[in-house]
Amino acid sequence: MLFSLANLKKRSVRDPDGEQAVVPKLLHGRAALKLLDQAISVFDSQVGRPRSEYDGRDLEAVMGDYRLGRCVEACLLTRYSFVQPKLSGSLSPEHVAALVEKGLGEPSALRFALWDAANSGYGGFIPPEERPQLLSRLAVDWGLPGDPALVDSLLTLDSEGAATLTLTGERPTPRDVMRLYNRGAVQTLLAHSTHVRFDASSLPGAALKRLYFLAKRRGVLVEIEEAGAGYSLTLYGPEQAFGTAEKYGRRLAEISLSLLRSIMSLPEQPEVAGTAHLILHDRPYRFHLTGEVLDRLEYAPEPEHGAKAGRVAETTATYSVGSAIEEEEEDAPAEEPGFDSLLEARMYKEFRSLQKGGYTHGWLLQREPDPLLAPGIVLIPDFAFVRGGTRVFMEIAGFWSPSYRERKLSKLRSLADMQRDDTALILAMPHDAVHAFPGLPFPIIPYKNSVRVTDVLALLDSHYGQREERIEAAQSQTSNLQKEARERGFVPEQKVAETMQAYTRSELLALARTMEGDGCRYVAGIGLLSEATLEKLYNTIKQTLDEHPAHRIPLEEAASLAAATLAAPSADIEALAQLWPEWRIERPSLFEAYLTR
């Protein structure tokens, strides 16, 4: 929970570096528990009283400070709340039923009825001395006791002042309230931070990467940078993310503490210091997340599985030869992955949809790629695309704040200066932000509202497809495929595409011309067949056609005969029928199809 920053009791000190630091007032010890016990008793004494009679100064007097009193009140209101009374609390079931029957089951309906009576009988204004008489008459008309005070109370049951303090959960203990207050105080400072930095020099690389993606999946801007002999992990606050302390800041606070809990769960228990940076009264302050502070929050270590939730396995390779792929069970993600932006989520969903149809040109998608290192910087891209020995990273630039964009641009320039072969990178950014990334050697995909995967695939193929190299390598495989076709009779199209490294149908058909001859023939949609197998196919189907009186058989039967001859799960009989002009396909209706001669 978050408190008002103005109500949070805190003090200013000098930290060991001589910088201004802020320390929140945290409750601990027997004395604090006794005060909280008294505060709970004061709250209990006001249960059942309307808000108009509630006075929060009683709590402030018990706690000895108005700021402490208001924050403790916010904690107590997680178990208590002001509840609007109902008509059934003031009337018998028979009287409530009578009102409902007349369409007067709500206080607002009663007020409208009173206003109608005032307009029709008094010209819109009821003299004070005549008001009790009118209320009594209305009560009788509505089937209620003729008590004007009763009607007067019913008219305002839905007002804010009429809400009564009610215990809505289990009665809190002083320890519960202390825990809520301490966590709220720390979360309030974190939520108003410009950034929270963790010195992660002692963390293993794998753990640091896991924490990075844990923060990204929960929607917080995060970066890893070199810091001295190690690395630091920085979470950026609402100002950098165009958010508010109530929404984005709350998430920042929760994730900051969650990261610390995850670190606490590591077997080696590394020493990791966290520092939040704030601006209070136009002056910079630090808030140090020390071990003492964490002890006061009474958090248990984050479960190990919490850091791994939503991890996506790499997908299986596919070739765009028109056939859908079947996802292997072990490669399917256990659950839908999380993303730090809708842009990434939409792109991932579109890629998966194209992949299931076999139209991603053989590219694999990695959700959590390894970091790219340059002097003084660490850049972890959003995605990586892998095909064969080629890996291309992708960074999606969202609608960042100017300062965050400058830091990202600095990192990209440092990366470009390295001139390394393993830093293949493409950038996706909004149309109006392209001008802000000048002079970079990386290909750019502009977008308006979403990144289209088809644009990404086209860029990958044009810049990193290595088409000429693959064609040259494929030519050396032609004789091997022809030999296998002659020996086995048939090489499926999927295997041909894989062997020839043909990732699109146009590439495959272009390479198929090189496989023609030497006792083999390529049939699109089927694969590479030997002349002997083709002759066997022809004779098998021709014999079946000849045996049929009408010289025609259902298309499904012909396909089954072809599949059995090829020892394949299925066969495209329409592609085969085009090889022999005397055969044709007839479709007398939407539900019938025949092979005839």
Properties at a glance:
flat, 597 residues, 22 strands, single chain, seven-stranded antiparallel sheet, 22 helices, alpha+beta, five-stranded mixed sheet
What does this structure look like?
This protein is an alpha+beta fold and 597 residues long. It is 43% helix and 18% strand. It has 22 helices and 22 strands. The strands form six sheets. It has a seven-stranded antiparallel beta sheet, with helices on both faces. Strand 6 and strand 7 (230-236) form a beta hairpin. Helix 2 (57-63) crosses helix 3 and helix 9 (205-217) packs antiparallel against helix 11. The termini are far apart. Mean pLDDT is 84; it is low at 305-335.
Poorly predicted parts: 305-335
Per DSSP E runs of 2 or more residues, the count of β-strands stands at 22
Q: Describe the biggest sheet?
A: 7 strands, antiparallel
Structural class: alpha+beta
Look at the structure and give the mean pLDDT.
Answer: 84
Shape: flat
Structural Rg: 37 Å
Strand content: 15-25%
Write the layout of secondary structure elements.
Elements: E1 10-14, E2 20-24, H1 29-45, H2 57-63, H3 66-76, E3 80-83, H4 93-101, H5 107-122, H6 131-141, H7 148-155, E4 164-167, H8 174-191, E5 195-199, H9 205-217, E6 222-227, E7 230-236, H10 238-241, H11 245-264, E8 273-280, E9 283-289, H12 291-297, H13 342-356, E10 364-366, E11 372-374, E12 377-379, E13 383-387, E14 390-396, H14 402-417, E15 425-430, E16 444-447, H15 453-464, H16 467-475, H17 478-488, E17 490-492, H18 493-500, H19 505-512, E18 520-523, E19 527-530, H20 531-547, E20 552-554, H21 555-566, H22 573-577, E21 584-589, E22 592-596
Parallel strand pairs: 14-15, 15-16
Antiparallel strand pairs: 1-2, 3-4, 5-7, 5-8, 6-7, 6-12, 8-9, 10-13, 11-12, 13-14, 17-19, 18-19, 20-22, 21-22
Helix pairs in contact: 1-2, 1-8, 2-3, 3-8, 6-7, 8-11, 9-11, 20-21
